Amino acid sequence: MKIGLVSLGCAKNRVDSELMLGLLRTHGYIATDEPAEAEILIVNSCGFIEQAKAESIDTLLKLAAYKQNGGCKALILAGCLGQRYSGDLLAELPEVDAIVGTGAWNRLPEAIEMALSGQRTVFTQGSAILPAAEMPRILTTPSYMAYVKIAEGCNHACAFCAIPQIRGPLVSRTIESIRQEVQQLVAGGVKEINLVAQDTTSYGIDLQGRPMLVELLKQLVEIDGDFRIRILYSYPKNFSDELIDLMASQEKICKYVDIPLQHVNDGMLQAMRRPDRRKDIETLLVALRKAMPDVAVRTTFIVGLPGETDDMYEELRTFVTEKRLDHVGVFQYSPEENTPAAAFPDQVSEEVKEERYNDLMAVQAGISEEINIAAEGREYIALLEGHDA
Questions:
Q1: Which residue, among 319, 235, 331, has the nearest Cα to 278 in the 3D structure?
Q2: Strands 171-172, 192-196: parallel, antiparallel or unpaired by DSSP?
Q3: What angle do CA 48, 145, 294 make, to 5 degrees?
């Protein structure tokens, strides 16, 4: 039977999707990119914020049409949205034949068989499944790059975020398991390894009681081959001087930093229950740029958290203007059930959120353009993605 899978949300979700496809292949299913050809359709969903949840539901409903007008015999919801709302969604979405959560995607073959026999079911036992090098996997990225999930879950308790409720606490893979997977990918021709987790700089705390990202990287750079390592989703709290020095000294590690700062006003950071303050953030940026003058810095900010005043937003806007970061993403605050921020007073109107979002993105667009213009005439090592005949 042919399987069609749509993967939504983050790179961590994509790894799960690739493992799902690998698992289903071992059970005799054939993957297809054409939903009209698929007898089984799966949506690996995101449940992070309202916009992501709406996209997941919309995708499900669009694919449900193939049950009427195509060859689809079963429609399955997998991933974060199903994990978060499980049985409620099964009742509200009669189009869906099964829900398989983040900690139970290994039961997909069972869920499919039950769906084909007319039984609607929900599997949401556990929060997440830790990848292993020996797990079958079908890469959906271009052949020259891949994501490697080094840990699952998160120990932070940010006031706005539901991820720990969905994915559970931090659980790290062993260095040996990760090294084995990276060796396999490099041997298969992958040139860029992207390390992902909810918080990569906290990797290993559950194993040794301290961050172990430096030890992991030291092992990975010793692997033979011409490849690069990119580190994503690095919380500033555990971004140590040792990690900065290692990144600066190793050619195989991209001079690229992805740190979700979320805000810079101390009052907002405290309300968000973030451990860092503006002084810590500025100290980290200075250290990064001193060790790696050409470092590319990417971050995300949230505008419109309850209690964010005009002055607080202006402080954030000024910070973005002055610090000239390479890549900035902006989220409009989305109140999520069972998170502290959803019950905060002084909620910010949707109109103000939209205005601040558009303003900050416009500021960053100008900065990014200036950074790109300044790069003209310089030489860089590039990853060739393709060429004309």
A1: 319
A2: unpaired
A3: 85
Tens-place pLDDT, residues 77-107: 999 999 999 878 888 999 999 999 999 999 9
pTM to 2 decimal places: 0.94
DSSP string for residues in 101-154: -TT-GGGHHHHHHHHHTT--EEE--SS-----TTS-----S-TTEEEEE-EE--
DSSP string of 52-74?
HHHHHHHHHHHHHHHHHHSS--E
- Say if residues 163 and 48 touch (Cβ distance below 8 Å): yes
Closest CA to 332 of 348, 309, 318: 348
Q: Residue 39: name the closest of 30, 28, 50, 26 by CA.
A: 30
Non-local CB neighbours of 334 within 8 Å, separated by 6+ positions: 49, 50, 51, 160
Q: Which two tokens stand for residue 169?
A: 């606490």
pLDDT in tens, 338-363: 999 999 999 999 999 999 999 999 99
